[in-house]
Design a protein that fits this description.
heterodimer; A: alpha+beta; Mth169, Chain: A; 32% strand; B: Rossmann fold; nine-stranded mixed beta sheet; two-stranded antiparallel ribbon
């Protein structure tokens, strides 16, 4: 039994997202004037070989805190999907 | 000067390691020793330098993978004992990722990788890395980075400022910390900081690339000179 963690890492709201801004300007140039803001983040899929959801959740939280995100500038969220 | 040994950490993707080695070796009585990222000991070094480059290809976040390499466990331990650690550019990014220094280095506000000569001023000359400079002295030192925009919470910035931990600032030719001089968008024009204990310095500009006249500036030289004199007990 294992879980697939679908992890999203996003820049905290207070951090200027220069990539998002650049993409937003490009969309303005394409005529999409209703696009008000873009924030670009990261999406990761991690397979965690734990039998129980609670353990998988704990591992996932730890790896997000220790490596996959930097709490000073990023937030993370995830969902766990059982896989066989 | 008594014999001093300085370790220079080589990560996969470091590219200023040999420039740093060259600069360090130019001081009489100072011997550079290269430390591979997979090494487990610091070979009796008196100080450690984390050089510039793109360790581990800047994957995930700049410096984030390097932080977990075997040699960094030793470096963190070494720094914890009050021994000197200097991080230049990518080395500074590694130091903030591993928590030896506070804050984070995010994408330059102008989006571009900036590679050019800059002016920085010495905000604190009462450190082991800067005591051969005058306070407020302006230095011509090059930068080359895409993620050098120093960011920290307002509380952290306030404590850095009140403890004198801001060591270098981007300034104009008159020494003013203007918005124009702050090409990467760093909070408070911060170009380099030390930890509270004063034994760990990180800076984005490259003093090793300004260590002799032929390179266009030797303003970076006294940073090494300050440190080495301290290590030799001079």
């Amino acid at each position: 039994m294992a879980f697939k963690a679908k992890i999203k890492v996003t820049l905290r709201p207070s951090i200027l997202d220069v990539q998002g801004k650049a993409a937003q300007h490009a969309l303005e140039n394409l005529g999409y004037s209703s696009v008000e803001s873009i924030r670009i983040g990261k999406y990761m899929e991690v397979i965690i070989g734990e039998d129980f959801r609670a353990e998988a959740e704990q591992v996932c939280t730890e790896i997000c805190q220790k490596l996959l995100s930097n709490p000073i500038m990023e937030d993370f969220s995830f969902e766990l999907v059982p896989v066989n | 000067m008594a014999d001093v040994t300085v370790g220079i950490v080589v990560f996969p993707g470091s590219n200023c390691d040999h420039d740093t080695e060259y600069a360090v070796a130019s001081f009489p009585g100072v011997k550079p020793v290269m430390l591979w990222h997979n090494d487990h000991d610091l070979k009796g070094c008196d100080a450690v330098i984390l050089p510039g480059g793109f360790s581990y290809g800047d994957y995930l976040r700049c410096g984030s993978i390097a932080r977990f390499s075997p040699i960094m466990r030793e470096v963190i331990d070494f720094a914890g004992k009050g021994r000197p650690v200097l991080g230049i550019c990518n080395g500074f990014q590694v130091l903030v990722e591993c928590g030896l220094l506070e804050g984070a280095l995010i994408r330059n506000a102008g989006r571009k990788f900036v590679s050019r000569q800059t002016t920085i001023s010495v905000a604190n000359n009462a450190t082991i890395f800067t005591d051969r400079y005058e306070k407020g002295e302006m230095l011509r030192v090059p930068v080359a980075h895409g993620e050098g925009n120093y960011y920290a919470s307002p509380e952290t910035i306030e404590s850095l400022e009140s403890n004198g931990q801001v060591v270098f600032r981007y300034t104009d030719a008159g020494g003013n910390a203007t918005a124009e001089a702050n090409f990467n968008g760093s909070m408070n024009n911060i170009a380099g900081i030390v930890n509270k204990q004063g034994n760990v310095l990180g800076l984005m500009p490259h003093p090793e690339r300004a260590s002799e006249k032929l390179l266009g500036s030797e303003d970076g030289r006294r940073l090494f000179e300050s440190l080495f004199a301290h290590l030799a007990g001079a």
